[in-house]
């Protein structure tokens, strides 16, 4: 059996992902995101042994968008407990696009899950009611391992000025009593968390904590509660790639969360954390290059959660 080296596999994965960039486009509904070069593509890995590997445009910073929803869920679960959080938002995949407000009107006043926009706005409302945005940012920095992580002000302004659909959802939820807090304060919190910028190394650090059951690899310190991790990763499997989550589960098979800025955070249980950036996204809001990089890595490294194949790649 030929023994391969992971740096080689990562470069091959990047080149494989690159072939799909032309099948996607940058998000244009947030004008500031439309300015990003759609050909950028980068990936970072942090293994459970603490080794790091990078390829492509991994140093390029991007806004994490919906990936921020995973960290707001961690924050809310650990400060308010799951019972309270899930009295405001459901645990089911919606089968609808991330920005849909259909079900809020016709089916259930509570959003289906914390990762669609309505659900994330409801969770942001819980946090904004009792905490400052800085408190949330401290957690983001700790999980990503870099103190200089900040909000991209231009993206924030752009989202705030154009987020009419998100405003509609928030007002609908305020009207039905799901949201107790001030709508504009809640939206300010939500748009700021979506506009946090980082690179794939930061994202891979966070992913490695998820893959390591909530424990930081290099220090051995538990940063996320066991019960939170279980809820979070289950929701990442069922809802992390929105209405593309089913196919992603089959093709890739890792808890993951995408953002329309082109980021994907993916956690290969007990093996490695993966951070990806590729701003060309598909109609479901998932990075097309990133999706294919993950599919390639999953196959080559045996990362699918139901794979029992031994990898011949050393990492
Ligand atoms: O609210 C929005 O529409 C964006 N700030 C976040 C959406 C998003 O990232 C969906 N993910 N793929």
UniProtKB/TrEMBL annotation:
UniProt keyword annotation of ATP-binding present: no
- Domain of life (superkingdom): Bacteria
Descriptive protein name = Glutaminase
Cite the InterPro entries for this sequence: Beta-lactam/transpept-like, Glutaminase
Under the subunit heading, UniProt states: Homotetramer.
Coiled-coil spans in chain: none
Q: Which organism is it from?
A: Clostridium malenominatum
Keywords, A to Z, come to: Acetylation, Hydrolase
The beginning of the lineage is: Bacteria, Bacillati, Bacillota, Clostridia, Eubacteriales
Keyword DNA-binding in the entry? The reply is no
According to its UniProt record, the EC number is: 3.5.1.2
Q: Which residues bind substrate?
A: 66, 117, 159, 166, 190, 242, 260
Reaction it catalyzes: L-glutamine + H2O = L-glutamate + NH4(+)
Q: Which family does it belong to?
A: Belongs to the glutaminase family.
